[in-house]
Amino acid sequence: MRRAIPEEVSPHLNEAETLIYEVIQELNFLIQEIYPIALQEKGLQTTLREYIFEWEHRNDAMVNLTVQNERGLPLETEQAVYRVIQEALANIARHSRAKRADISLVYNHEVLQVMIADDGCGFDMNQKAKGMGFRSMRERISSIRGTLQVQSAPGQGTRLIIQIPTRNGTGD
Ligand SMILES: Nc1ncnc2c1ncn2[C@@H]1O[C@H](COP(=O)(O)OP(=O)(O)OP(=O)(O)O)[C@@H](O)[C@H]1O
Ligand SMILES: [Mg+2]
Fold first, then answer.
1. What is each CA distance from 8 to 5, 21, 56, in whole angstroms?
2. What is the pLDDT of residue 170?
3. Vertex 18: Cα angle to 16 and 23 (nearest 5)
4. Mind spelling out the 3-state secondary structure of 40-102?
5. Which of 91, 132, 139 has most ligand 1 atoms within 8 Å of its beta carbon, as the pocket-test mutant?
6. According to the model, what pLDDT value does residue 172 have?
7. Residue ranges of the chain with per-residue pLDDT less than 50
8. Residue 90's pLDDT is what?
9. Is the pTM of this model over 0.85?
10. How far apart, in whole angstroms, are the C-alpha atoms of residue 89 and residue 96?
């Protein structure tokens, strides 16, 4: 038989309930950040378009996304591409003063090529970078056996070229 909850306990329970609710909300947000469910549900192109829509809202630049021959790729690959584009857009927002960025995803038979180019200030590639952005992009892309190439020069904008093998290998 359950006993009634004593009156003096009730406010504490309410408080605990609110706290738990807030923690759940926060965890949901973090999980979404780390493991975007949208990718699985909507696919890469739609998820990217939604992200770009939000990004344009916060930044004074427009993004043109083109996708050729899209097809579903392993979640791990789509996640890596999504993350790297987020990181590239973060750089464009923070460093480039660009007015326009072009992102293209071209699904070839055995390779997905992703290009992210901006018309901003560019930078001197001989200067030693302080940040972690490019390093983490490289690590992500090489973990799925892809390559990342950066092209930039002062006054010339910045271009990232990513190539990812997409063949359904049954082993190396
Ligand atoms: N799109 C861009 N336009 C102009 N400069 C850029 C662009 N992307 C990167 N850079 C330059 O390259 C440097 C290295 O970028 P990276 O993302 O590795 O580090 P960060 O953005 O400085 O820091 P973090 O990404 O760790 O927060 C930047 O500090 C900036 O000078
Ligand atoms: Mg960065």
1. 8, 21, 51
2. 46
3. 95
4. HHHHHHHHHHHHHHHHHHHCCCEEEEEEECCCCCCHHHHHHHHHHHHHHHHHHHHHHCCCEEE
5. 91
6. 45
7. 169-172
8. 94
9. no
10. 10
The domain spans of the chain are 43-165
Please report the pLDDT score of residue 171 as a whole number.
42
For residue 148, the model assigns a pLDDT of: 98
Torsion sign across C-alpha atoms 71, 84, 120, 56: positive
Please indicate whether residue 166, judged by its CB atom, sits closer than 6 Å to ligand 1. no
Say if domain 43-165 classifies as CATH 3.30.565.10: yes
- Per-residue tokens: 157: 């904008």
The protein residues having their C-beta less than 5 angstroms from ligand 2 (an ion) are 91, 131, 133
Nearest Cα neighbor of 86 from 74, 108, 103, 66 is 103
Tokens 């992500």 locate to: 140
Phi/psi at 5 (nearest 5 deg)?
-75, 125
Q: What is the pLDDT of residue 29?
A: 65
Report the distance separating Cα 73 and Cα 93, nearest Å: 28
- Compute, in angstroms, the gap from residue 10 CA to the centroid of ligand 2: 48
